[in-house]
Design goal:
about 475 residues, mainly beta, Immunoglobulin-like, four-stranded mixed sheet, 6 helices, 39 strands
Length: about 475
Amino acid sequence: MKRFHIYIVAILALAGIMTSCSQKETKSLAVPSRSIIVSMPGEEGTTTFESSNITSLTPTSIPEGWTVVNIDMYKATITVKAPESFDNEEVESGTLSLKGYTPTGGTKVVDVYLAIAPKEVDYSTNPANCYVACEPKVRYIFNPMIGGNDIQLATAYVKLIWQTEKSLVRYLDMRDGKAVFYLVPEEDDNGNELETVVDGNALIGAYDANDNLIWSWHIWVTNNNPMADTFVVGGTEMMNQNLGADTNNEGSADHDAIGRSYGMYYQWGRKEPLVGPNDWNFSLNYDDVLYDYNDYNEALGYVESSEGGSIEWTNVNPMNMVVGNPDNEFDWLNNGHDDALWNAASKSNYDPCPAGWHVPDSSVFANLTILSMNDDMPWEEAQQMYGWWLVDEASASEDKHFFSAAGRRNYLDGRLDNMNVNEELPVPWSGYYWTATTDGNDAKALYFNLNTNTRTWNGIDTSRSMQRANAMPVRCVRE
């Protein structure tokens, strides 16, 4: 009888263990790209998925006209086919819902966005550190196996590092050695799709087979085309927008336009964009908000040069500003200066501009001056423009060009610095624009300001020496 009791106890204990294991069952299911984007009706498309403790996947909801061709659990791929025609209720885009099952009957659900995008912009044969995206429903393609102009990378996969707007770059994938991303249209208050994109900036990272970040690319999302909206200054074609900006506010007092004209900020010689202020007026010195792949908040970091003062470190830590090293004349590099990081004569591997464009030589700005009618206007009017109309004195043209007073990130501690102290109001009002020209320990920049102390004199220096650890805007010029 005792032996029977022992058997019963053992069986109950085993059942308890199994129940406990079932209650603690772990499972995961994700589609990194979150999408399958094809180029034409009737085309098949494939993406990968990641799972743990999932033994099967079953479609539970499929967009009208689309077909799930295959779900390969061994290769972890999902293949679908777009509608051949749209004679009935077929749709060009929609959401595929999939349910994954565990061995014990547990479930996990994942959604995949399906879309036909006939138009593509292929940057894969013309690599750079920045890619411009200005249209929705377009497949943007680039080569994730090359960093800069020609650095070979052992990229195993790509992933979003940060973005300035939630779901700005949502559908990122890498297949057959090419990276593809897709922008969804902006929507009005009623949820209707518009022909515009949500503007902002993003950073996509390349990761090796050991999950190490090895390179990153800046995605510049704007509703304008900065490579077409240009002007000539100093005999050179220049973009009419700051690198990373959505617009040129052109002297408008509209606060939203002013903020969207600042663009990204760069330490001299680095390719990585650093965000600017959260508000147009630099209020409370807050950084702009960043979001990760899951739309969770991220934050810009600040490190000492002793930790991050090398190009190798910044390549794999793109979310950090390296403050100036006083023992190295306030360069962000810890030892010495590298004048070849940016080069106006030929585009370097660390140039932050799109392909075909580069950081300008200081000679491009040499003959710029403040438009006389701006220089003479009352202080109260001038301060509302948050920038100056500049003219090229050496040009026969009387064209004027607006440059925003976007300030800088200070080389000492990375703080946003654009305040000229006035007893009544701190006015965010100074402009800095990097050039590729070096000056001994420093580098040259276009600089201007509104003198809020005297209210009668406005300053411009077209070739001002600045410490290389400063982070400042860039205006790209054509190669």
